[in-house]
Amino acid sequence: MADARREKHMIEDLLAVMARLRDPDSGCPWDVKQSFATIAPYTIEEAYEVADAIAREDLGGLKDELGDLLLQVVYHAQMASEESRFQFADVVDAITAKMIRRHPHVFEDPSRREEFMSTDLWDRIKAEEKSARGDENTGILNDVPVGLPALTRAVKLQKRMAKVGFDWPSLVPVLAKVEEELSELKAAIAEPGEGSKARVAEELGDLLFVMANVARHLGVDPEAALRAANAKVVRRFQSIEGALAEDGRRPQDATLEEMDALWGAAKEAEKKG
Predict the structure, then answer these.
(1) CA atoms of 131 and 273, how far apart (whole Å)
(2) How many Cα atoms within 13 Å fall on the side-chain side of residue 234?
(3) What are 220-259's pLDDT values in tens digits?
(4) What's the DSSP call for residue 9?
(5) Which SS3 state, helix, strand or coil, does residue 271 take?
(6) Measured between alpha carbons, how far is 31 from 35 in angstroms, rounded to an integer?
(7) What region, left, alpha or beta, does residue 145 occupy, with left being phi > 0 and alpha being psi -120 to 50 degrees?
(8) Ramachandran region, residue 153 (left: φ > 0; alpha: ψ -120 to 50; beta: rest)
(9) In terms of CATH architecture, what is 2-101?
(10) How far is CA 197 from the centre of its chain?
């Protein structure tokens, strides 16, 4: 009950906690030895856990996961502050200014709402920002982050190219390209020799890239689709485990034929709801 009555912590408290954790003399030894590079994987992991909570519609979990993600921002800002590069307040200032700048139809001129929705106003403003920074790396695809999940990055690359007209006009030729890439993968698999494994990997990558394009043309997020497929596999395999457990067995005690039949039963049960 005492915890329920306490005053809630504010962002200043979190900043103070992180500064204390990073104190070279009295802080946490683990936190003190971390760097941008060592923390980056945790930042990515926390972003995924936010997405997972959303996918599970777990708003209580989402609150906690957003806190974990916020901690990552605070962590990086604290390390930058220690190097006299920037402060957490600078991060807040930069993103606030960016959002105002990129939404002129909200903060400046409401008459530009239609322009924002029907043109590439966002991208034009973004390009102007890069030019103002003197960024010479202005290629269409240059600022699509390499660290994105591969399927997500594939879709972003495809969208960028599509904006300048490098795109198939409909889904039909994309599906034809799937067949072409699948044939090339089969041919690579059939090739003998040491180099065949590299060729198979290349052709498989091409096929996955085209499948991302199929998803884009269908308006489907391929990462979300694959997450749903993964969840379905987990669900059905757990059903197999449960059915075998009723007989006092484990999956390794069953034959492939038995497990395949149980998989089919789980699939049918899902269809019936």
Answers:
(1) 55
(2) 6
(3) 999 989 988 999 999 999 999 999 999 999 999 999 999 9
(4) P
(5) helix
(6) 9
(7) beta
(8) alpha
(9) Orthogonal Bundle (1.10)
(10) 28
Q: What is the DSSP letter of 195?
A: T
Could you give the residue ranges of the DSSP H alpha helices within 102-221?
A: 104-107, 113-118, 121-132, 150-163, 171-190, 196-218
pLDDT in tens, 13-28: 999 999 999 999 999 9
Residue 62, class by beta-carbon neighbours within 10 Å (0-12 exposed, 13-18 middle, 19+ buried)? middle
Residue count of the chain? 273
Sign of the alpha-carbon dihedral angle for 56, 59, 61, 65: positive
Please give the DSSP secondary-structure letter assigned to residue 215.
Answer: H
| For the chain, domain boundaries | 2-101, 224-272
First and final C-alpha spacing in the chain? 42
CA distances to 61, 221, 233, 267 from 227, rounded to whole Å, are 18, 10, 10, 18
Contact 241, 250 (CB under 8 A): yes
The span from the CA of 210 to the CA of 149, in Å, is 15
